[in-house]
Amino acid sequence: MYNFLRVSHHDGVVRLALNRPEVFNAFHRGMALELQDALKEADRNPDVRAVLLTGEGRAFCSGQDLAEAVDPLGPGLDRILREHYNPLVLQLRALRKPIVVAVNGVAAGAGANLALAGDVVLAAQSAKFIQAFSKIGLIPDTGGTLSLPRLAGFAKASAWMMLADAVGAEEAERHGLIYRVVPDETLADEAMAVAQKLAKMPTEALALTKEALNASVFHGLESQLELERHLQNKAGATADFAEGVSAFLEKRQPQFRGQ
């Protein structure tokens, strides 16, 4: 049924694993739309009481597949945000079942901010969170400009976004981005145990708790996603973005000129 996800069911939990390990689970249209479909199915399936989201291989998600982003026949930045990431973030927050995210490796760009939209986020000790957007002349999207400052505070969020620092799992826990750091070798089992515990809890009460948290922490999410889309289109029209993507694809240092 799915080409870019691995889906399995475990005692009330549906495990959704991003499955493009050869490109560190970078998102393209196929994977984004499949994840949307899988989340819709989880939402309407009464046998699913919790969702576990993770990645196959050595990474959680390296963000957007840049080859697709600059492909003249591809969807383009505006559609990528409007049809791929913004609906995914809204789905994760609206899903009336708890979502456990197991960050099993690097979570960069959209991958990092998608992880932050989960309800309970665990990360392997080797995991890193990178707001990689500035490296290619873009702005943080996928709700990161709302969630990251509210979780970590303005000073850290601003620096991480502008400098594109790699934030290790322990630092992420220390600053409130994630629930817990877990040894790499036990992450899968511990994340499943947390998801199965949630699956046995009162689902409607958890959904109402999530609704209250949305009103508090994620208040204004939809309008912020639209603002990100507007600003990303501006950033995507710059010469620096073209240079940033070219440098990335050519594996060289970019020469930004502020244009």
Structural notes for this entry:
The chain is of the alpha/beta class and 259 residues long. The chain has a domain at 5-184: 2-enoyl-CoA Hydratase, Chain A, domain 1, CATH 3.90.226. The chain is built from 11 helices and 10 strands. The strands form 2 sheets. Strands 1-2-3-5-7-10 form a 6-stranded mixed β-sheet, sandwiched between helices. Strands 4-6-8-9 form a 4-stranded mixed β-sheet. The protein is globular.
Quick summary of this structure?
This protein is α/β, with parallel strands linked by helices and 259 residues long. 48% of the residues lie in helices and 17% in strands. It has a domain at 5-184: 2-enoyl-CoA Hydratase, Chain A, domain 1, CATH 3.90.226.
Radius of gyration, whole Å: 17 Å
Helix and strand content put the structural class at alpha/beta
Mean pLDDT: 97
Shape: globular
Describe the largest sheet: 6 strands, mixed
- Which spans have pLDDT < 50 for at least 5 consecutive residues? none
Question: CATH topology of the domain at 5-184, anyone?
Answer: 2-enoyl-CoA Hydratase, Chain A, domain 1
- Count helical runs: 11
- How many β-strands, per DSSP? 10
First-last Cα distance: 44 Å
Instruction: Trace the largest sheet across and list its strands.
Output: 1-2-3-5-7-10
The CATH class label of the domain at 5-184 is: Alpha Beta
Note the beta-strand portion. 15-25%
CATH architectural label of the domain at 5-184: Alpha-Beta Complex
Assigned CATH superfamily of the domain at 5-184:
2-enoyl-CoA Hydratase, Chain A, domain 1
The portion of residues assigned to helices is 40-55%
Order of helices and strands: EEHEEHHEEHEEHHEHEHHHH
